[in-house]
Amino acid sequence: MNRIEVKEALNLEAGENLVNLKGWVRTKRGSKNVSFIALNDGSTINNIQVVAENNIAEDILKLIHTGASISVNGKLVQSKGSGQAIELLAESIEVLGVANPEEYPLQPKKHSLEFLRENAHLRFRTNTFGAIFRVRHAMTFAIHNFFNQKGFSNVHTPIITGSDCEGAGEMFAVSTLDKVNTPLTEEGGVDYTQDFFGKETNLTVSGQLEAEMAALALGKVYTFGPTFRAENSNTSRHLAEFWMIEPEVAFADLNEDMDLAQDMLQYLCSYALNHCREDLEFLDKRLQEEEKHKKKEERQEMGLIEKLQFVIENDFERITYTEAYDILRNSKPNKKKKFKYLIEEWGADFQSEHERYLVEKKFKKPVIITDYPKDIKAFYMRMNDDGKTVRAMDVLFPGIGEIIGGSQREERLDILKSRMQEMDIPEHELWWYLDSRKFGTVPHSGFGLGFERLVLFVTGMGNIRDVIPFPRTPKNADF
Ligand code: 4AD
Ligand code: MG
User: How far is residue 278's CA from residue 285's CA, in Å, rounded to a whole number?
Assistant: First the structure.
């Protein structure tokens, strides 16, 4: 007999044909004469109700608890109960795997997200995480779709990198050297010539520099890979291992870069609305429940679906760093000293409290800040004529803060070299990067979208640890 999935079964009519469904038991309830089993197989957030009457042996039913896996043969019948149109009247049930209720951590009740993080290996089996990871998949697919439709080539940039100059964050070392008897140089440093690659290597913090090389031949490229940052930031927005999407476009200036970023984010939000409706409706309700427990002034004004719709329908606000600085300096929370970090001197980086003020209070929509002071941005960003700011952009989202960071790149060899000198980046390490400015250089731009921050936004979840299957954060690499 052919197995069908729950998603398909729930869309069928009642019929005489026997069908087979397999899945995991969410709940079992009932009386002596009849049991009702909620069965889920991950194909949809919805369960199918399996009705087991007296024809199913007592000793089989006794093995069926929350978490057990079963295979059911039966007929799809019109449901007598409310809540579902169709249910499965069992003719035979095979228990594939038991789950001892004394030991199985997931009970048919609401568990805290903290508890589920400690049981990340099982949390896929809850409604919330089933929905999150189906949405995460849909976003992966939609990203490739978006770039493919626009004629971009996906490039796979290295995960182990031999250049540590990007400056995007602290790095994780990759080495096979003996940790106890580490070979040393005459000066007493580690002798990396004896290491696997014959030089110091790390896990990448970004694929950008390599992606630029590809863009300067293929025209339009993007990367979608894991990135690693050994920063000790224990926040709800940071992971030590996260996924990043980095498009890079030859002949594009920063305005085109911003257009691409807005286009992509709007496409992804509308893809989610069109393809993940049931999961989003579930997550929307979940969010509304969460909001009820918050103080009134901390509550979000919009529901999840409303928020996605809003992003699709509204142009993002574009302002320069200096404009944002003026707004923040004269803002109420700054004058009343409500910000933890007060805005005083021009040139300081904005903190997330400032970003959230601009997005959530001032403009009430996504904001793109451009033209940051050069000293708080990377060496490769294009210098403006004022000599003080660079052609950078950060896209800020409600509830998230920075979701995208990007820039127009410095394509002028002499200016790039002097920026590297200013920032103590040795030319010989980036000889290949400088070559691209020596031979056929062109204006070009790109950005990086933090994939988990996108999934946070689209699912309405509050902690980045809950939108990646097995999060890596300081002091935590379980599973
Ligand atoms: O702003 P970032 O550091 O930019 C770059 O790495 C550039 N090379 C991108 C480019 O122009 N090609 O990182 C880009 C995005 C951030 O806006 C944020 O969404 C995400 O990556 N991000 C993180 N997400 C989770 N955990 C972390 N520790 C993150 N650090 C950055
Ligand atoms: Mg950034």
Answer: 11
- In order, the DSSP letters of 175-193 are --S-SSS--B-TTSSB-GG
CB atoms within 10 A of CB 334: 18
pLDDT tens per residue, range 191-243:
999 999 999 999 999 999 999 999 999 999 999 999 999 988 899 999 999 99
Has residue 18 been placed in a domain? yes
- Nearest one of 119, 145, 432, 431 to 263, comparing CA atoms: 145
3-state secondary structure of 444: strand
Q: Whose CA is nearest to atom 29 of ligand 1?
A: 238
In a shared domain, residues 100 and 144: no
Domain tally, the chain: 2
Residue 80 — very low, low, confident or very high, per pLDDT cuts 50/70/90?
confident
In the DSSP assignment, the letter for residue 124 is G
Residue 366's CB is within 10 A of a number of other CB atoms, namely 25
Residue nearest to atom 3 of ligand 1 (CA): 168
143 and 99 housed in the same domain: no
Q: What residue numbers bound the domain in which 45 lies? A: 6-109
Q: Alpha-carbon distance 349 to 383, whole Å?
A: 18
Atom of ligand 1 nearest to the CA of 233: 28
In terms of Cα–Cα distance, which of 438, 364, 436, 445 is closest to 405? 445
